[in-house]
Amino acid sequence: MNVEEAVSAVTEGADKLLSCLGRPFVAYHVTRIMRESDVEHAHEMQQEFLERNVEALVLEGLENGAAERVAWLLDQRVETTWQRLHSVDSVPH
Predict the structure, then answer these.
(1) Residue among 28, 44, 51, 27 at smallest CA distance from 79
(2) How many domains does the chain contain in total?
(3) Residue pair 55/64 in contact by the 8 Å Cβ criterion
(4) Cα dist from 79 to 17, 42, 58, whole Å
(5) Fewer CB within 10 Å of terminal CB in the chain, N or C?
C-alpha cells in the first residue's frame, strides 16, 4: 500500500464529510497523516483532524453526538490505515 492508496481507503464512502469539508481539504490532511512516520506526531495530527471534522459537521447541521460518531468512524479508518501503511516500514527486509 502506498500513500495514495491509503488516502483512498480512508476516504471511501465518507461522502458527508468530504462534501462539507471539501475533498482537497480532507485529502490534504489524510495525506499528511499517512506520510508522518513518527507515531506520536501522527496521533497529534490525527487528533487535530478529528476535532476539525466534528466542528465542520456540526456547522453543517449535524447534532454534536452524530458529528462525533461520523468523525470517530473516519478517525478509526485513518488509524487502521496508518498502521497498515507503516507496519511494512518496521518489517526487516
Answers:
(1) 44
(2) 1
(3) no
(4) 17, 9, 22
(5) C
**Domain range spanning residue 16?**
3-86
Asked, for residue 45, whether it belongs to a domain, the answer is yes
Residue 93, pLDDT score = 39
Q: What is the pLDDT along the chain (93 residues), one digit of tens a residue?
A: 899 999 999 888 888 778 878 888 888 999 999 999 999 999 999 999 999 989 988 998 989 999 999 889 889 999 999 999 998 655 543
Residue 77 C-alpha cell reads as: 479508518
CB–CB of 34/3 below 8 Å? yes
Answer yes or no: is 92 within a domain: no
Q: Residue 22 domain-assigned?
A: yes
> Quick one: 43 exposed, middle or buried, by C-beta within 10 A (0-12, 13-18, 19+)?
middle
Tell me the Cα Rg of the chain. Answer: 13
